[in-house]
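Memo to structure team: turn this sequence into structure tokens by end of day. - J.P.
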Amino acid sequence: MNLIWLEDFLALARTGNFSRAAEERSTTQPAFSRRIRALEEWLGVELFDRSTQPACLTEAGEWFRTTAHDILGRVQRIPEQAQAISKANASTLRFASTHALSLTFLPKWLRSIETNITMGPIQLISDVLQQCEVLMLQRKAQFLLSHTHPQVPSKLDSLNFPSVRVGIEAIIPVCSMDSNGAPLFALNSADQTHTPILAYSAESGLGRLIRSLLGNMLEQTRAEIVLTAHLATVLKTMAIEGRGIAWLPKSLIEDDLKSGRLIEAATSDWCVDVDIRLFRSPEPEPIAAEAFWQAACAAHQAFQVHEKND
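Reply from structure team:
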């Protein structure tokens, strides 16, 4: 169906005269009549009773007049609606973040950024690092927040995605306590037979870091992986339940360490200090996203000054 047919139909419905409607539509009467007939053939019904003068709408024609007005009205509103959606999308900040940082670091960090700029709506996708990287590569996210380490380049690093360090964090091996208040399992104990390890999946960013930075040390022990999961929160629950040792972000387990639900299971050489880094798309972004990036970079400079003073 051609939208021109709808306008022709409404012109004829209004005038009841083919010649006058054709003139109004700036076409010849034969061409106009062919378009009305094409519309009727497409619908499979006659819209006009041509035996009367002026031509009158049939019952189907009366029904279709309302439908035609509705269709054309919707079409006319499309540009306005598209522009509204585009404007809303331009002001929306699209974030991808790993699960652990979504729960701990991201909310407070965003609040600190908001002291310097006015932020619009935020769209947050929380997932494992591998999927977050895919979202960035597909341009479905403008920013990615993840744990990183200089010795373990990420996929985005290799593709020259700009990034800025926005925080630091310790990843600590922990487990539950035994009845004497000691670690239920310990990597540093003399007997390391079958020490259970709660590990991250291959898709996990923390798993990627732990395997790269501590893999050789773990191979030299007699520890064994007894459970694998995507999420730090799952490994935390399993560690509390006495299932084994898990490497968890300190920000995620501070309350559990204070309450005694978890305890450090190894010496400091088994701990890993990592960066929290914000990646952005290398392509120009809408004004709101660029303003946010500038604010994040300014916060990074303040973070460096604070770090030096400490």
